[in-house]
Write a structure and sequence with these properties.
99 residues, two-stranded antiparallel ribbon, 4 helices, 38% helix, 8% strand
Length: 99
């Protein structure tokens, strides 16, 4: 379950800068569950293994950045650029000064 949460966090973070890599990521027809399933199907077993640790390695071929989630996912994700959802909620970040 913990690795699934990390994977979903990576998907959300990567949507902003890598929307062209995964179909329907910004305002396309795919739901969040469909996007996560699509991403999970594209990641190899070895790449999945690199995602279940505190410092998840980048996966350049998919445009996924390195992600540091520590034990509760707050601190590492706090240092990201925030999230872009599109639609009625265009962006979100815990820290308003995130660049």
């Amino acid at each position: 379950m913990h690795s699934l949460v990390k994977l979903l966090c990576i998907v959300i973070i990567s949507v902003h800068d890598q929307s062209g890599i995964f179909p329907g990521c910004k305002s396309g027809p795919l739901s969040a569950q469909q996007r996560a399933a699509d991403l999970a199907s594209r990641i190899t077993i070895d790449e999945k293994i690199t995602q279940i640790v505190t410092t998840a390695a980048a996966i350049p071929r998919l445009g996924l950045p390195k992600c540091e989630s520590w034990s509760e996912a707050l601190h590492g994700l706090a240092y990201s650029l925030g999230v872009s959802f599109g639609g009625d909620l265009p962006a979100a970040t815990f820290f308003s000064n995130a660049d």
